[in-house]
Amino acid sequence: MPRPVRLGLAALSAVLGAVLLAWPFITDFYSYNASYYNGVVAAAAISGILTISLNLAMGYGGMMSMLHTGLQLVGGYAAASLTVKAGLPWPVGIALAVPVGAGLAAAVLLVSLRATSLYFGMITLAANLIVIEAGRAWEDVTGGVNGVVGVAPGSLSKVAFYYVVLVFLGLAYLVQRNLMRSGVGRASLAVMESPDTASAMGVRPATTRLLVFTVAGGIAGVSGALYALQLGFINPDVGLLDNGLTFFVGLFVGGIGTLVGPVLGVGVVALLVELIKDYGRYTTLILGVALLMTMIVLPRGIVGTFRASRFGRVDDGEVSGEAEPEASLPDGILPEPPETDHPALEGRGLVKHFGGVKAVDGVDVAVRAGTVHGIIGPNGSGKSTTVSCLTRFHALDAGEVLVFGEPSPAKAWQVPALGVTRVFQVPHLFEQQTVLDNVLTGMRRREGYGWLAAVLRLPSYRRRERAGREAAARLLAFAGLSGRAHRLAGSLSHGQKRLLEVVRAVASGPRVLILDEPATGLTPAEIDALGRLCRTFRDRGLAVVLIEHNVEFVMGLCDEITVIDGGKVIAAGPPETVRRDPKVLEAYLGRPDLIEEVA
Ligand SMILES: Nc1ncnc2c1ncn2[C@@H]1O[C@H](COP(=O)(O)OP(=O)(O)OP(=O)(O)O)[C@@H](O)[C@H]1O
Questions:
Q1: Contact indicator for 188, 61 with CB cutoff of 8 Å
Q2: CATH number for region 345-429+509-598
Q3: Which ipTM score applies to this complex?
């Protein structure tokens, strides 16, 4: 399924690129002060590189970074010390700025792995202050408060240096685009929207954040090196947070979480600063007001607003919500279950208490491959907690979990590797991603390419990504959602969201699929469609676990049923046995509607 092109944005990027390329010729032709105007745009392009880095961290990674001026500073120090102090050529200085920036970013992220967004912001602020103070104190390397002077790009002319800056701006843009339009980008957006759901797809939130923030650090380092080379010096003041205002304003004006927004936004800010240069002392005030106005009037920024408009929207053709009965489940999606007599998923003596609440109190449950296994019980009986124990979203107080006879790993993100995937009780779609990208995120574990292959667009990446897209498109057709592939998932109806969640979980190639109350809020037709999917999965050898309140649906679909009440199993067996069990009828006392259904 080809990716639809946003013609408006493509044209905007092309115009922006053409103006930047032609800029020295334009200034040469129209101005007596060409060198000055080339310098202004080169400085804006360097800011654009840093803003791309900030966009990766904040817009695509959800990490509030106050470290970016510090990252620029260390990149500048790397270039300055290699060129001025060690006498090496300037390209070596830029090259070293990459690992220095990346290393600092990685180190800060590693010490803040467990921090939530607000605390992460505070930790990065503290790290930025430390970097500035270190710059002041470590005189031998940084030159102290005076910094390092005499940094220069060899014998390059100003115009040649301008094009060097453009090349690095283009590279930073490509790294951002290629990374974010790959499985890494989808995983990063998934972690940003819901770390738990990402974990259920086998995406490790910590590793994903580390990768994105480290790449952002490397790009910020390059911007620092270019900054030092352009100005001819670097000193600790470069790291001051005030200097970050341009990047923040540029990012929000252009559009956070968009590819071209950071560059466009910084361009707009540079133009504004240039227009008000005679009132220099009001620059901070005016930029602050510009940021405020953007947040109020254009909260998505220029590109975000354009993208959401009629002109920027993608036309994805005919919309069809109907299931396509002739489309069968594509081959190669579901793995063969291993040859073993062990249950696909087994919980033995599971115990989970919350303070005084015995949510799960010694539950035994065994689910066989090629069956649909229902878990039912009154409200608050412990069904969802049992599932969270089985999938390791809750640490067990006692008991063990086995997958095809093997002990399950302890972390939620490790469990999908054994083929166990869950769908949550409350819809947990990645609403800011398209329907197709949601399914592709489900395939993250089996993408089969690394981040570098994605950045460099290696043949292995292209091959695997194309195969993944085709499989995802076939899965969507199977569920009757193909007409909505390029819509944002948030725009689907409740029933379609439920179906998409199931499809996304199946995309990960599970052997055990756990559905927590999937029929809630569905129309009868959608419940039928869900039943069709579950039967197909079962016939393909999958173990389907169904937690449901809709007893009629469960009785008609399940091969085995476990009934839980008060955190304990009160009955287990085939539906016809369970529905007549006196303990089951008693558990539903007070719910006459359910007694009728069960009996
Ligand atoms: N994170 C938690 N902290 C404290 N108590 C919890 C937590 N999660 C669940 N509980 C409690 O544990 C008990 C079992 O809850 P659980 O959600 O597993 O029941 P359930 O059978 O899935 O209910 P429902 O059918 O309403 O979804 C309830 O009393 C609930 O309030």
A1: yes
A2: 3.40.50.300
A3: 0.95
